[in-house]
Amino acid sequence: MSLTLTVPREYGYVVTTTALTFFLGLWHGARARPYRTRAQLWAPRAFAETTDFNAADDKRKEALHLFNCAQRAHANYVENQPSTAIALLLAGLHYPQLSTMLGVGWMVGRILFAVGYTRPKKEHGSGRIVGFALQFPMQISLWALAAWSGIKMVR
What we know:
membrane; MAPEG; glutathione peroxidase activity; Four Helix Bundle (Hemerythrin (Met), subunit A); 0% strand; transmembrane helix; mainly alpha; Membr-assoc_MAPEG
């Protein structure tokens, strides 16, 4: 049995939103650069380690901590973007407008996550919680909507 799939005109919004996630990844990487410079920790080192903290004064310890937070925000984005982008593309086949709104909301949450994670006054990167609270439900909704789109295709 074959399936004919008509892509709705609004799917262009889905494709555009998905493409914007690529640029958001670029922003995450560029955003970590000043933190790396302040921490004086050069590539290929991905994170500051315990030995770096032990040898640092208080000012550099804060710089190392914020660098690790910026790197972790970027790494977390890289971990979550592929599955979310695929879910966005799949869910958008049947629900282009809802998928686009969820995708944009997810990106706003990811920005708040990254910015909040690197707030100096927030202990243990707790500033990321607001962004997480926004992006996580959007992400799970996209995943569920993608699954539901697949179910609709075989029913």
